[in-house]
Amino acid sequence: MRNYLSSINIEAEVISEILLKAASEPEFRKRLIKSPKKILDCYSISNEAKQVIQKSIVDLTQ
Hints:
Number of domains: 1
Low-confidence stretches: none
Shape: elongated
Radius of gyration: 12 Å
Largest sheet: none
Strand content: under 5%
Order of helices and strands: HHHH
Distance between the termini: 38 Å
Number of helices: 4
Number of strands: 0
């Protein structure tokens, strides 16, 4: 259980890091919107975390 919670915390940190980077770096945000799979595959996070990021990016651009 402890490892599971630890991995959730790490994923939450990575999600936050990616979203903050997208908010503060226009070039990264453009690449993330244009090629989300290519960018997110560089991070060792779950598919669920990748979906959260993709949905968040879409929400931010509307």
